[in-house]
Amino acid sequence: MEELRFTAADAQPAADKKKKRILQLVLSLIVFAGYTVLLFVPDTPLGSSLFEQLLACFRGESAYGGAFDAAVYTNLAVYAAVLACTAVSAFLQNDRAVYLNLLKSAAALAGTLFYLCVLTAACGLSFTEIFRSANATFLALVFGIAALLVFLFMLHKAGGILKFVLLLTAAGFLAVFPQAFIGAYDFGGILAGAELGSDTLAAVTSAVFRIFACVLLLDLLAALFALPFRRTTVFDLVRAAAVLAVSAVAFILLGVYDKFANGLAGLGTIVTTGIALIQFLLALSVFLILRAKKKKAAAEEENSLFVVGKDNQMALRGWEQPAAAETAFGEEAERTNNAFEAAAQLTFDDLEAGSAAKAAAYDSAIRGEKAADKPKDLFDFEQARYDGNFNRTFADFEEKARTENTPTYEEFRTAAPTEPPRTYDAAGSGYVPDAFINGLSDAERDEFNKLFISRIYGENKRLPAYTVGGDNREFFFFFFVFMGRSRNVVSDGLLV
To answer: What is the pTM of this model?
Structure first.
């Protein structure tokens, strides 16, 4: 048995995969370590660490109420998710850990954004107070964005930057989170339910703005957790269209409610509607560009010289394997191909039955003579001619030749020449009418006639017709392309 030898090139893919796995594991540990440090040091804008605030919530000593407690507990859940993803990444045997790293980075960023919003809404801090120093909240936000960008680029390459831009548009309303959206209500106010009056218009406006706030939050969460997935163009377009529709309704109701008499009193709604329009136009542009590229690729494939046929094999266009139900001759073509496939299954053990047996089988198949001692395992041309494995019988061919007055090769060969046959000389005066056929022996010429000119054994749709005395370069090209299907059907002498 031949010894198997593995080279460095064979081991290269496995080595690359191992390096990617180690890289993702190292990055996973870095992310986990970074958020763990920020849990204890430095302090948040409130003057205490997040861990101290968590202990205060557990003891019931929180000074800011339910919304703040919910934000602290959310960060605790985020840390648990980061720890779980890090543990799972250590046991993955491939580079799929990048999905877990991206997911936990998105979850940690979402928790930080929620905590940031609570600091402005429940604790009364402004963005200036939060971002003027390198506190734990500011560092967690920067660290989360950096980790997200790294993993997006590693997973989606340039497409990751586009996903990040769409995420920014989805989170655009956070820039005006403390601003008034309608009346004196900021984002937290409309989310809790703004009391705008007792009439029907006020009730409808309050309900619409509450839905508006919920849709903005859901859009941000959907943009975050769609980051690991590919081909989300349609999903991005649908959610952008939904956000734009709800934003437009809220914008119209804002105008109806106070008739824009207070100028920019509804600044939050106005800015958010503009951002929603930008998000929709961006998602629509990406969708149209990718659709145009897909159509262009399909058009180039249609014009390509090579195609992948129904049998999942590459072939020249027009010569691919046809489906049985596509043409009226599908069943006949399938039977013909099955016959060639059966002939191709012959092994060397079958062919080593003896030179005498092979010669007898050759005479029986090609010359129509019965071979008494032919082995049963060899392909029986005589039987295949009449049992329906090929497209038509010899009698069918003779009948067609008589009705169509089509000259056969025998008539062409025996017809009296109208002029003395030309010979080939070194001066290049030309060839005889068909140099290839005239160079064959009588048995080979007879075999070639039956197989490829008269085709009494059936049509082969992969081969063009052979024209006696004509330009047959295309015939010989496709014959050598598909030689594997007919190697055991054509005799060795004719192949040589």
So the answer is: 0.56
